[in-house]
Amino acid sequence: xxxxxxxxxxxxxxxxxxxxxxxxxxxxxxxxxxxxxxxxxxxxxxxxxxxxxxxxxxxxxxxxxxxxxxxxxxxxxxxxxxxxxxxxxxxxxxxxxxxxxxxxxxxxxxxxxxxxxxxxxxxxxxxxxxxxxxxxxxxxxxxxxxxxxxxxxxxxxxxxxxxxxxxxxxxxxxxxxxxxxxxxxxxxxxxxxxxxxxxxxxxxxxxxxxxxxxxxxxxxxxxxxxxxxxxxxxxxxxxxxxxxxxxxxxxxxxxxxxxxxxxxxxxxxxxxxxxxxxxxxxxxxxxxxxxxxxxxxxxxxxxxxxxxxxxxxxxxxxxxxxxxxxxxxxxxxxxxxxxxxxxxxxxxxxxxxxxxxxxxxxxxxxxxxxxxxxxxxxxxxxxxxxxxxxxxxxxxxxxxxxxxxxxxxxxxxxxxxxxxxxxxxxxxxxxxxxxxxxxxxxxxxxxxxxxxxxxxxxxxxxxxxxxxxxxxxxxxxxxxxxxxxxxxxxxxxxxxxxxxxxxxxxxxxxxxxxxxxxxxxxxxxxxxxxxxxxxxxxxxxxxxxxxxxxxxxxxxxxxxxxxxxxxxxxxxxxxxxxxxxxxxxxxxxxxxxxxxxxxxxxxxxxxxxxxxxxxxxxxxxxxxxxxxxxxxxxxxxxxxxxxxxxxxxxxxxxxxxxxxxxxxxxxxxxxxxxxxxxxxxxxxxxxxxxxxxxxxxxxxxxxxxxxxxxxxxxxxxxxxxxxxxxxxxxxxxxxxxxxxxxxxxxxxxxxxxxxxxxxxxxxxxxxxxxxxxxxxxxxxxxxxxxxxxxxxxxxxxxxxxxxxxxxxxxxxxxxxxxxxxxxxxxxxxxxxxxxxxx
Length: 838
Hints:
8-stranded antiparallel sheet, 18 helices, 26% strand, single chain, 838 residues
């Protein structure tokens, strides 16, 4: 068995005798961050290329997929090699040849490959014990050498909060029929009754049993002691700690030599983020609240009526389809006038919808309408506030002491204040890897060359050319010059200090965190080395202790989520799984595979991270979710731009059945581990291909659009309200344990449960095009009646206190009974039920 002794105090009797000394030692060990104590093994990567490359690096989930963090050295016979320390489990990687060619390992185990999110595969390597070395399982026996539980591993012992503890124990696949755990808090006389652990699939020859314990513990000095009970037929084995490997046939002996863990988390994520229901806003296209700041008619921008037909030439635009994407490029020049005043006006609408957290795409001064080309992080774009107010400032430099507040800045802070007063949190898009070419510091470099004060801020590749050459995020010498990187601190000293100051400015204006935003979403954070984000987190938490940080990382993101960088990421792993299950037709994954994907999403990261992941379907970087149903069987975010990579992409409005299937996915999104996020307008029925057509103007209920198909959909909106109200009503959907309950691949039926203490919610999904009668196992609920919160006949939707939607159980509803450990429910095609005890 793998039972790491450094974390165990020995027998419980000895703990009573020497309680103070042993507990202090245990406390000292347990408060080490999980990332610091996870056991690591050195692994050697080898690669023999066909040609003679100049350089080869290995990039993977262990180094943040950095193309240059882990160089390989050429050896004899043209074999390149590099060593890296890896934690136990499967790690994904590729070789990077000459800085830009990403190559699979031809000698890797094909069974460990995983989709890379771009239509290809990442290679995989398994680190740690392999199950193949053990003999086949036998009835009424347990292979004790295959039992794995390491209290130094955050994957096995995860203190989610002082009141929640996630435990995992592994056994050889098909060897252990059942697993249970007995536990007690420090100082308690009695042990709990055996609590069932759930087998959540098998990986690499091991069954994984998990449980989320709800504890009474509340402080740093609290500890939980526990013992595992493993059962195979007539054989029962108790697992604790001891010189004999920790296996006992006597429960008392195991309790006398129990396992123990401190309940204080090694790191915390903001509590409010676990209860967040996100709404993403693209400001220029959301709401025009003030006409006086509207963009004008220039060579690069043209103000278009909000309700104009998107696919036709608007007044003042050159006619002809040839001028839509290309030619005069009408669509790229369009401006609609969304602004901060519009955000303020929209707050009651957002409250009526039920969301409570807002993510804003960039709002800082920039040339473009999307604002990912910041020319001044210090100020809100005057097109969102008061035209020309930045130009009126005098004396500002890179020194934060000289920074002032414009009228637009103050209006934005007023919006934040009003949002806070109405119960919203607000985070900003932090684009800290690059700036726009018009940024004054970069313009100074272009003007003064090496003599510029900011010469060391940017990646200049050729000072002698005229004009100088530099690295940019979009292309060499492009519109988005990148900040200079530093391997020790992430960014060069100048931009490092500037970004830190900007971070504090908006989190705590004039030192007051109550007036500031509540966190940051980080754009392309993988382009900045990890050391910067480690220090940046300290700056964020120092300015505002409960601020939330989330990164735009499309792959698995373990290197950023160990507790020393981000709180979460935009969960594109969920988006990809949801597309493949709910959207696809010929290439749809089966319920059992969907369950495997959701299990990985729930438990790959520490659970306090998983609970506050931003679970999205779409964003400003993808086609809209509704349009995915019109265009099934594509790789996620692929072949979806009509103007280049997806000329066959259909721009048709989804059919009623497609919307029904979309809302089924929305129901599951609001029941899944992680915080659901809606891209603006999805709740109104908006559809469209990828950029630029995923950024059409928001469809407001009071507006009449030229295109008669474009209109506010009250049924879609009402379903979003119900799903949101359901999540807010049920703590188990926000904080609960996740487990698959039933997968019927041949019937398109899938059931999972979310559990928190004694409360359990069953999520029942009929993915098929036929009505299904479904028998769902529900042990321990005999005699109870269940409410289906998504059924209007069970729960009424109304506007509650504060104007947000609420659900109330109808007294005359025909509830679903549980008998003999089972309930039976009939679901229409493409529908979902979420049921809890009455």
